[in-house]
Records
---
Amino acid sequence: MIAGLLALSTTAVACGSEDGDAGNGGDSADKSITLGIIPSWTDGLSTAYLWKNVLEGEGYEVEIKEIAEAAPLYTGVAKGDIDVYPSAWPQVTHASYMEEYGDDLEDLGAYYDSAKLTLAVPEYTDIDSIADLTGAADRFGGRIVGIEPGAGLTKVTQESVMPGYGLDDYELVTSSTTAMLAELKSATKAEEDIVVTLWKPFWANSEFPVKELEDPEGALGEAETLNAIATEGFAEEHPELAEMFGNFKLDDAAYGALENLVVNEYGSGKEEEAIEAWLEENPDFVDSLKG
């Protein structure tokens, strides 16, 4: 009798464990989303924390994974270690990554349609075009201050802009977005001339007294969209989320307010508070994602 009861108990526990694990495993898999960002690229930072708030409100567990550069970020999405890169630049800036990893990626749609790469100088610097940099290297210390070495903007500047305008006497200085902004802040405070690589949308364009240089040769490429890029198969696994990402849209005013709150008014460590403040100002936003 005792042996029979033990066998029955063991069978019941085993069956319960299998059912429970299967259920929990399924729920965990279905309700766990990883968003990848490069934290110094504040379009991705801002939108990732916005999505974190939205998805947690829908019952998902959300992890934001910070990656140093674009190449490992795209690799992570392609391999499925990261589910979504919420603010990719797929048409121009990250075109090479899309070409390399495209078979393992899925485009969930564009949320912003006027993104652009730029070279910029302070407003007080009396040149207006990238062409004006030719022969003026001494004025700028022979330097164009860039961002991360693996950034699409860096690649375009090195391979298209500099040879296209004959800027052979300049060095493109690369390190990080943070370092570039520190140099820009120091130079504008001292009213010194500086050339930096920038992009739009980006809060620094309004925070610092800078102007975009005209690009008559079109070396920086046309305006592009900002898109959510996911692991291949994401929409099939999460159709409701794919629809929400597809419905996500921001105009200049909404984007500017979002990024300003996250980066400037609240700052590092208070991103979630910034998102709550933005959502209070945009009470219909979450409903707009659901069609």
---
Amino acid sequence: MARKANTSSADAANPGRLKQIALTYKMTRKADPKVGLVVAGVGIGVLGVLLAIGFLIGHPVYLGILGFVLALLAMAIVFGRRAESAAFGQMEGQPGAAAAVLQNVGRGWTTTPAVAMNRNQDVVHRAVGRAGIVLVAEGNPNRVKALLAAEKKRMNRVVMDVPVHDIIVGDGEGQVPLKKVRTTMLKLPRVLSGPQVTAANDRLRAMGDLMSNMPLPKGPMPKGMRMPRGGKMR
């Protein structure tokens, strides 16, 4: 019974994986029309080289099997990279793109999107991990610097002993392209232990709860009232 259950679950999972691969390919092809030709060319090239070597040394069957396996692996790697590039290309310039990247940084990171925002929709996101706190800002470079400074000042009240890094997403000088945000974060030195990361998250979460519990006027904002200049939403 257990074997039958495992077999049926595996059979049910395979169509899901194939459907996901097909959907990924369709989405990638919209941004990269040559992805199919490139992936097929890589596979044929790898298989052809291994087969040629096999005929030269007198073992075409063994090298053919090895070439087939390596061709599939090479095709998967190339397709994955081009799919990733296409996804980043579609996300770049879209509001909240950095938050989507942070959600997929990996295990060990706790992400909180939009911890600070201004009236121009410049946003700062926060991630906490073994490297400390990483603030990722997207929007106008000049405006987000003020947002970052204000957020650092706010956090220093409760986590002054935790290192804070900041990243401004963009292609300008001193900025990090969207597709390199994850790599940049993973290269940061790990200086905190697991319990320290948990403690930092708890303190930041408590700070957010305190802000949310502050008395605010209920109902719509009265007519004529404006947000003060330089004010930010949290």
---
Amino acid sequence: MPDRPSLPKRVTLKHVAEEAGVSIQTASHVLSGNLKVRLPESTRERVREAALKVGYQPNRHAQAMRSGKTNVISVWMPIDRLNLSYLHFLQHISRRALASGYELMIAGLDRNTALLPNGPSPTNWPVDGVISIDAGKAVEAYRKNPANDHVPVCVLGFELEANGDAVGWNLYESYKQLTQQMIAQGRSNIVHVTLDWVLADFPREQRRRGYTEAMEEAGLKPRFVAVSDETTTASHAAVDDFLSRFPETDGLACMTDTLAVGAGRAALERGHSIPEDLVLWGLGNYPVGQEFAVPVTTIEIPFAAVVDRAWNWLIERIASPEMAPRETVVSMHIIERASTGS
């Protein structure tokens, strides 16, 4: 049998120093960014070139112990949901991190860890701060350990923690406003198309609450369609079954644009005309909704505005963790298209 190739040895500061022809201490000063030690720029450049040549990667644990900083921000988000909004948030966070000289560490959570109380705390490597996307309960669990109190956090949502901030968006008000608008146009049999686990576990979820309050204030009965997952296929099946039993339905208020497209397909296949017989809307301003046969009215999440505020606040808190917690709510934008008659 041929001999197995030996595993490459870990590249250390010693290898960098030997390649650059300097001491290990000099290599350490250069690669840690220590400007207090006076060194010729030519020496610094030679060390940096040597590090690239030998493939040196700094030990972040050691850096954190020496300087108290890692230049890494951790992003906590559920990854067991097919939710395009998370990708939009992540893109904007990535742009801000790149412009600010930070790296990102993505902590993928499941729905139970992110959203349910008393869940397990995420394991977190040494980082300078945490941005939580739809994972406020994970931050609560994380803060139960006092050893984590020193890590600044910013929640994209409404959970406010010590040494942290929260940036939300007025989904409840926007969803209620659009439901009221459709009721004012004469729609009286609007149903809310949402996920089955939201119906089971989150009676105060913002879209659900906005829809329910608008219907009840108008003297109308809220009704719900439970969808098994966040796909057009699942939405199509659930709404098709509902419309077969309740053909008088004249509005489909959907949790996302993805669910709206599946719901719209079911309505069209059953002979309903959109928006004449039945109005339809979603959330997210996703391409799938814009490109649907009847372009879908949507509520647009202000991704850039939310991330800009959250990132700025987190960087400020890293510098001054003693600041009092802050929270704000960013306005949303209703984009009316053909599916509601606009």
---
Amino acid sequence: MTSLFFVVTMALYFAATVSFLACVLWPSDALSKVSLGMTAVGFATHTIALVAWMVGVTDVSLPGFYEALSFFSWMLILVFLAVEFRHRLHVLGSFIVPLAMVSLVAAAALPDTAPTLVPVFRTLWVHVTLSMLGTVGFAVAFVAGVMYLIQDGLLKSKRVNSLYVKLPALDFLDHLSQQSIVLGFPLLTLGIITGALSAEFSRGAYLNWNPEQTWALVTWVFYFAVLLGRLTMGWRAKRAAYLTIIGFVGVILTLIGVVLKSHGPVS
């Protein structure tokens, strides 16, 4: 039953992705409402699937890659729906929903053995939850950065099209990016701390300096520098947008490193 709900969720997210992207090319209030409706129903089935999984497993304190990526996808949709409810920003769905769909599909594509070989990642839910919440913040900042660069390019080229009309003002996108990092960074920091504590209990060392842990720390330092630059040195606009995109690429590389590590011996 849980698998069925996940399959339905992926189908709804895929249909919503196609619908949202169609809205960019052919603006339509009716199509926007249909897209939002499919996303909301998909979020409901996604929620049911996650709850059913938590009820059905014997050890919920040991989440694997599938559950972590699924939770990341679920949180992305939750953030989108919250922003949509407050700001009526339909175009955000054209960026957030595809990202959530890709995350959920990637989770489903992982081999069954992937979650069983990385005890540092498979620790307590508090570590995974905090890390994924921080990653969601960076993902929203990434999306805001991409939207900023697109809108900035349209303004400079003086191309007034349907996408230009739908995209928010540059100041709003810059503010959204900053607030997302402000919220995401402390959550990721707490996730790293709890992960290090769990590693100490399970392996006797806070850090092993393996590639994925090292890259995670590099990503943390990078976002710390970005946050510091934004709050103290006034980094704004295009520079900040580029940095948030680069930072999220680092997050993705860290996740890929963890997944690849799962196929090798535990170090």
